[in-house]
## 1
Amino acid sequence: MEFLHFVRRALVAQFSGPPPRDEFVRHALDAGVGSLPLLTLLTIFAGMNLSVQAYGTFVRFGGQDLLGLFCGVGGIRELYPVMAAVICGARIGATLAASLANMQISEQVEALEVMAVDPMRLLVAPRLWAVTLMLPLLCGYADVVGLAASYWAATEQMGVNGGTFMEQVRDIVHLSDLAAGVFKGVVFGWLVAIVSCYHGYRALKRDGAEGVGVATNRAIVHSAVLCIVLNMFLSALLYVR
Amino acid sequence: MAEQQPAITLERVCKSFGNNRVLHEVSLVLPAGKILVMLGPSGTGKSVLLRCLVGLMKPDSGRIFVEGQDITALDERRSAGREQMFALRRKFGMLFQDGALFDDMCVGDNVAFPLRQHAKMSERQIAERVAEDLERVGLKNVQRKMPAELSGGMRKRVAFARAIALRPRIVLCDEPSSGLDPVMSATLDELILDLHRSLNMTFVVISHDTAEARTIADYIGLLYKGELQEFGPKEQVLRSSRLAINQFFDRSTDGPIQVL
Ligand SMILES: Nc1ncnc2c1ncn2[C@@H]1O[C@H](COP(=O)(O)OP(=O)(O)O)[C@@H](O)[C@H]1O
Ligand SMILES: [Mg+2]
């Protein structure tokens, strides 16, 4: 109930005019650029891993030429958006929740209220926009890096023909799949941001530093769980017809 | 007409947290342009009282008027009520007990913040005002420092500069003197008197310091166990024969105020 009330206030704040520019830029940079090293590293390994796994399975019935199919579908449709959401979500969510919780326990949020500035407009709205816009970009980026890693592992390490691989990817992965990934990114981004802002915002002064820890912890766990569960439903919605 | 309105009127204000009765039927009238020093041991609800005054907390019962307007009647869940509350809060400047500086902004941006939000001033005018106000609180060339680099007392003074930046009509100070050395705390007292004289601001100052009350107060209140034991013009309160106020001024452990 309290969460729904928060969501309502956040939506009102988010859509009542453009967010404060400085805050938006700061959080967009932190969420986007700040996530790149971690996401790059992990998608490279995940992408190679898809190739390894597919090769080990398919080679037994001589199907190693199907590698592109597997890496395309598994990676772009499912793995990379969820990875971007969960990994970057944990990073971003922790930052958002900790920063807001810290502002709560040190009375900075109340100071804003007293200065007749709406904290939802100044603090929450730019964070929501920043993460909602950045996560789909990160998903797209993870698609490219992951696929490149799969390709490299398949061709260089397992001797799969590069042309066949790409042909299969092109065959199975359509523009609509990329769009679906971006759509998932938008949904996950907003979800991570709202859940993290909620937990951060809810911290109480009397909980002190421990309250910041609790808020951060909940932000990470709840946004990861929600993203993974929701991913299943989104996939069912997008791909089953 | 508006000049005759009292700055703050409390009518039987009560506030509890669960079983913890923090404010009990607190009533007072503070005329505009006066300095009220609210004394009381820690944990008696002084900060809660200030929070109620600016609408950060809503009293369970009773009414609070700011310059004649009933703030307890505003419904913040409605956007109209929230806008009225914001309009009302712009009459206030508030110094929080721990400063509440924005720790991701430098000192200069902290003091400039209310000006950038609400004043129609150019960046140059803002920079001048910031430097002026920081100098008033005895700080020079600290604009680029981050709050974390300052001592507790300096943070408090920056917070005071931020509270008065917009030249509000009413300034609420939650223990401005605690954590300051005696010289600095005397400087702050002079500053309060000076702002009071030159700009006719109303002050509500929370303090444990009876010397401070003697120096700056027009009105003195004593809050103990959620009740306003004493309230009135300074001379009257200082002549009072009530035990609690005398105990506070005599710094005695002997009297109605119990440590436990
Ligand atoms: N938000 C809150 N929730 C529950 N209890 C509170 C809250 N704020 C203050 N209190 C309680 O109210 C009492 C008075 O607190 P406070 O006004 O901060 O005292 P002080 O006079 O030292 O400023 C304390 O017992 C405190 O525990
Ligand atoms: Mg207090």
## 2
Amino acid sequence: MSVIEIKNLVKIYNGSAVQVTAVNGVDLTIEKGEFTAIVGPSGSGKTTLLNMIGGLDSPTSGTIVVDKTDLSTLNKRQLVDYRLNNIGFVFQAYNLIPVLTAKENVSFIMEMQGAKKDAITQRTKEILESVGLGDRLNSRPNQLSGGQQQRVAVARALASKPKFVIADEPTANLDSKSTENLLDIMEELNKKENTTFIFSTHDQRVVNKARRVIVLEDGKIVKDERRG
Amino acid sequence: MRKQMIISISWKNVWRNKKRSLIVICAVLLGTIAGVFTSGIMKGWVQQRIDSVIYTEVSHLKIHNPDYLLNEELAYTVPDQSGIEKYLKSDQNILAFSKRVKIMTMASTSTGSSAIMLNGIQIEDEKAVSKVWKKIVSGGGEYLNNLSKNQIVISDKTAEQLRIKNFKVTSEVIDSLKRLEVPASTIEKLSNIENIRYKTAKLFKNELKTLLSKKENKEYGKQIFNASVHYRLRSKIVFTFNDTNGKLVYQTFRVCGIYKTQNTMFDQMNAFVVKDDIAPLAGFSDNSYHEIAVIAHEEKDIDELKSEIKTQFPELSVLSWKDLAPDAAMMTDFMGIWYAIIMGIILFALAFGIINTMLMAILERVKELGMLMAIGMNKKRVFRMIMYETVFLTLVGAFGGMVIGALLIGFTGHTGLDFSSVSEGLEAIGYSAIIFPEIDPGFFFLVTLLVIGTGILSSIIPARKALKLNPVEAIRTE
Ligand SMILES: Nc1ncnc2c1ncn2[C@@H]1O[C@H](COP(=O)(O)OP(=O)(O)OP(=O)(O)O)[C@@H](O)[C@H]1O
Ligand SMILES: [Mg+2]
């Protein structure tokens, strides 16, 4: 079952001097439960592609259909709600609200979704345990290491059981040990909860963990391989 | 989403940059204290003036023969006395009324003279209407009583003009100065003038000037001056006036009491005697008088009461305190304008500080706000989050300011604030030199609403700034 269907996606930035075609005719289908890495040199259009899939940026042309919803039919306000209810996000940094504890950060999306208090409490605890932070529920971001913060971010992204999780270079700011650890956790959750992951990376070790690798160059898919 | 969540984030955000928040909060605090306190002083000041106007000077309503107002002649007494008296007695809204014979006289002693309005009153009725009987100064004897005839209560000002107010350093004065901790060396110098009587304030002041050093005068002059006041009670004053037939008549009264209200002009003019001591002499039958002063139960009923009496007794003139002391009535209106101006300035300054602080906060949190919008926080929630933070920032200071302001008013409302360095000017126009600040609870309610309103309004600019953020750009890490 495909979660995301992308057809002939193009994104052109009209800079003051030059026109940049960041994504240049991408066709792509993501299946439920896939663990996909998007790789490519700097400037190849990874972030641009992920932002469009995540409903943060609009394509110049082409379509993105997520679970039968064509994102281009949604207006800005609808897109916000769409993101809230369907997509989990993990960014490279600044993922967490500094004044909230790990627990509160993870609950945040479920709170916004209006979930039941008991359900939130239970799910928050469960998911934080899954990322190995069961003992840091009440720590604030500045009391956690960079790796731990990213694990909280992953927990938050997954807490509300979204259709898929987008992670743009989630390990870029981490050392190799934390990187490996985060990827292990993501992989484990991908298997355990059958969560669909799409992440971009520069890191070969991260690429090695992926079961599908898509290589972008100049906004085009030049390679798309499934492993294992 | 549960509102508490957003509210809790907003509250925590207030304290993210403690130093900056505290600076704004302090500014708001000081502004609110200033606003509340100055308003309290203003209110106390005006209220005292109005109380004084009503309860010593003009009462709530005054009823006259209309001709008396044009020309204060003896003949113009209140007509239809039994009718109006019956009415006043039966009206539920009326607390008390006092009938007064008013005679313009020339008062003279062996050493001075002055034009005085003699108010012939009935003691118990007058006490229920006017508080002059409570304004007897210390060492100034007592109010009128029915025990002896031909007594008079005059003001401190009149006593001064008629040279009944003297200055004398007696052994009691020295004792009291010792108690006031005036240094022995200074008191020693005063023993030179012990028991010498100075007939005027000027003479005594000059004597003190030559006797004491400049420094002593500055520090203790006022205490010595006040302690040395000596009223020659039981002094005789002769009053001369024309009776109803135009014949010149005389009457001697003995001073039994000296009063002082906060209105020098009123004091200078008015003296009080028992009606029966003066009315026959002026040629009046038992029950003639020129004026009825009325006090109502409720100040707010005055206008209604006035028009009621007017329709019932069209031949009478009825004036309310607002007619008689328009300046004091105007002060009430002015109070509203004063509040508005003071609050306007404070809230405006407050809004500036708040907007500036919040804009800085937004600027610092661009990435975080971008992230929140990216993960699905809608504009309404972002707006609310910033609005709550702004309101909290405003309220903390304003609340503290109101509490401190209220305490200040409570405290000074008890002790009073002495403005006597400028008091002579104030008292000359009828305002007390010692102000007891006061404020009504409604004011705090209003201020709270205004502050919250300002907080909400001030949040619009920073919130709009936040909403304009493009999440994609905000979260892009370079
Ligand atoms: N807002 C923008 N305006 C103009 N050009 C842009 C904008 N955003 C991205 N680009 C351009 O689009 C191209 C693709 O950028 P993108 O950020 O998607 O690359 P990337 O693969 O994520 O690179 P990196 O690995 O460095 O993160 C680049 O040439 C970039 O300069
Ligand atoms: Mg990128």
## 3
Amino acid sequence: MESLSTDNEFENLYSYLKKISNRFVEEEDHLRIVVENEKLREVAEVLSKTEGVFLRTIAASDERSVNGFYKMYYVFGLDRIHRNIVVEVPLDAENPVIPSIADIVKAADWYEREAHDLIGIKFSGRILHRFVLPDDWPENVYPLRKDYTVQDLVKLYRPEIIAKAREVEAEAAIIIPIGPYHPALHEPEYFELYVRGEKVVGARYVGFMVHRGIEKLAESMKYDQVPFLAERICGICGYVHSTSYCQAVEKALKIHVPERAEYIRSIVLEIERIHSHLLWLGVALHLLGYDTGFMHVWRIREQVMILAEMLTGSRKTYGLNIVGGVRRDIDRDKVNKCVKVLDSIAKEFKEFVEIAMSVPQVKSRLRGTGLLPRNEAASLSLVGPTVRGSGIPRDVRRDYPYAAYKYIDFKPVVRTECDNMARTEVRVEEVFQSIELVKNFLDRLPGGGIAVDSWEPEPYRFGIGAVEAPRGEVIHVIVTGRYSPYRWRVRAPTYQNLPAVPIMLRDVDLADAPITIASIDPCFSCTDRALIINIEKSDVRDVPLVALSLKGSRLLR
Amino acid sequence: MNLSTLISIPISILLYIFLPPLLDGVERKVKADIQSRIGPPTILQTWYDILKLISKEVVLSMNPRYVVLTLSLSLTMLISLAVTISYSISLLNLDMYIVITVLILLLAIHSLYLTLYIFSSNPFSIVGTFRIATIDILNEAGLVAFAILTAVSISISRASPRDYLLIAIALTALAIAVYVSQRRLPYDLHEAEPELASGAIIEFSGAVLGFYIYSHLLERYILASIPMIFVAYLMSSTLYLNPVIAMLLIHILASSIYLLYAVISALIGRSRVNLAVKTINFIYFLAIAIWLGVYILWNP
Amino acid sequence: MVKFVKVLPIAAKIGTVTIRYPYAKPIVTDSFRGAIEVDPSKCTGCGACTRICPPKALSLNIEGGTAILRYFVGRCIFCGMCADICPEKAIKITKEFELASEQVSDLYIDVEHEVVTCRKCGSKFVTSKLLNKVEQKLSEFSKELLSLCPRCRRVEMLSKQVYLR
Ligand code: SF4
Ligand code: SF4
């Protein structure tokens, strides 16, 4: 590999890091250094100034019962040399305070707030308000601390809203006729758009409406049950999560997955990408009012869903992964069917995408809208098609090759126009790329078993598992426990990408806001509740749109 | 007034009253075909929907006076419009008086709708209302201009092919203006992004919504029949037709153009208000320029 | 310029793809995993499936004189882990997924097993079927010991060793 020359590139960085702390572990995929509290900001400064270093994730962990500390793990990726630098900072058990680095590394913002809410880490130099937890969550209860079990937490917290609804006998008292038509329902997220006339001049995002405590739940589940939980993190691309989880455990415990299993994982991952991108394109066309396109893209996508069911046993939530391999094999017959279906999809999609892109409104509303400049994309450590549409070729499949991507040459799809069209084109082209990849993998599918026979968990090992999901990098950090994960940190791509939305929304027309928000493919959880603030009049109107969004025009057409 | 004219008028009025939701049912089926779907179970579905909505309880979120008044007023005016046009096509007479009556009634109905929208208490529908007002004001001008232009073209002697070309240009432009007036894609901006902004009808439900939908469909069909009045008049001056047959022919033509509009709107996406203004402006100026160009340069 | 009209011939060629579900049969492939079915004649009540089931849709509880293996399809995620793990191959994965019901009791399926009582302390500890199975497998193991619950068995073994010494 190219390691020699590129290793040199970061030689200074490595020698600096090793100088600053003599406590470090070198693993195949990462260098983990223990840094003192006081030195963190300096290290962050150096890392953020080095070209080609991205913040991938931050995990906070309560390890008081193991080594007497809270721990913060900062995972920085050196994409070009396919390695990570993990900065580990132990914090005092009584008073866990750490300097904030959000001013140095922009992408750290949300992670710090989350650690503050869930583990109770205090960040000096920053005043933090509740971010993840609901407003009526009890004071000083930090759910991810080991002091609480899931059952404790369920007892401790009952959402007020339920009690309130009971109080007014909501079900009995209020009847809202929503007619024979269905209201628009996505996932609960909340944006504030600041508009001047029809121009958006700013935006703010408030999230975590549906924090489900999955990480905590996993701490009480067995290793082989967690993949099924992980898969339910996302309703569209769940398989990336179960794969990331399994890879993290496998890395931590040095389990060697059979090559055939790696191929099968990659095949299913790419099939998932095809279905996800087609889903996105369909909804994007719908947002642009081109419903015929929506229907036809989803018609083509349906074949992918059936294909996935044939290979895994389920249209979605494939249930295919276990630690150490996969559960179902792909036989010759299936390989042939698969190739046939993929060829027909490629043909139909090519034909249709040309038609869809020739629709004048689609063209004119994608081109030049939702600009995300390259430097902003880099400084926020964005991932996936969002960053690739801004000319930065970040892709886990190339940067941190996993599963079967290790065995092939992979070139990310990149566009440099930075607009909604660029992100659309990246996805469209990735569909074709994925089809080729699956065919390539099927062709080279090696023999052998599909899972390791047995493996033993070993507590307190550290592992990172990352997968390029359809929306961008998914990264799981794991600290192993005896029967269950001790700490499992999940970071989904939308988490990293959402902070870019306000930048992209600057100066777009209000009408283009939905497609711009959708252009990062935020699991479409963006548009349920919106708040429009008219700057000129500076009055705030806040309307829960779910109740109102009877899709009027649909009635009339 | 002979017997067939006498029969023709009520039939035409009844067609105006019953046809629009049926046509919408057909439109939904056609759209479904284009989108490879089954679509609604029957072409009567829109009628069923409207009847069901009308049978539901009335819930009003804005001041009922404004809603009921404007809605019933516009419905009455639509029906009188239907009656006027029915007279006109059954008598096969087309004088400026009728054209102007029709246009005035149409404009009045549109401004009634705008009033209805503006009374909405919902900030989101206000966004949609301003959008539709922008398009409406622009397009109304086009509608009036092209209706008059068509009437003028028809009243020219019709001696050479040039005069027929002039009529064709004016009629095409009128057909486009009618299309925009029907608030179809890409110009259905008032109800554009239901997640973000919307028109007034998100405030309606039950019977009010039912009546609104009905009046909207009726308006659409009346609009579609306007260019056909001119066509009928042209026909009547070249060949003799029984008034009943002529009337039926016009309804068939109007229905066909309605469905043609439906197919077109299934093929394209939605515009944006600033974009829409630009496009509409461009098309209308182009049409007028071409008409004038032909008129001046081609000297028979 | 009017390339977008080309969708019409495509639509004409493809025809209608949606089906009149639920009046028409849903499309599922042969690989589809639906709800499970426990074969009461094969199941021994060992409980292995209840321990692996990720959403805890299966449970084994001793109520009175019977052990009940309860399958609550409302929680089942159709993963098939139980079928993979079952030592008796008693679990079959069906293609059934239209399971909505107005009666919540329809969503519970119980397999009942007789339980053996510990000869010494009287606690109920294992299904008789499983005990038989174990007896067949371990013929050299004394029947005496097998009819004791794990705790009493440990005590008995220890005391025997002491006695022997
Ligand atoms: S694993 Fe099999 S034998 Fe054991 S309880 Fe479950 S179904 Fe019965
Ligand atoms: S299929 Fe999965 S979820 Fe359902 S009972 Fe079996 S193990 Fe549990």
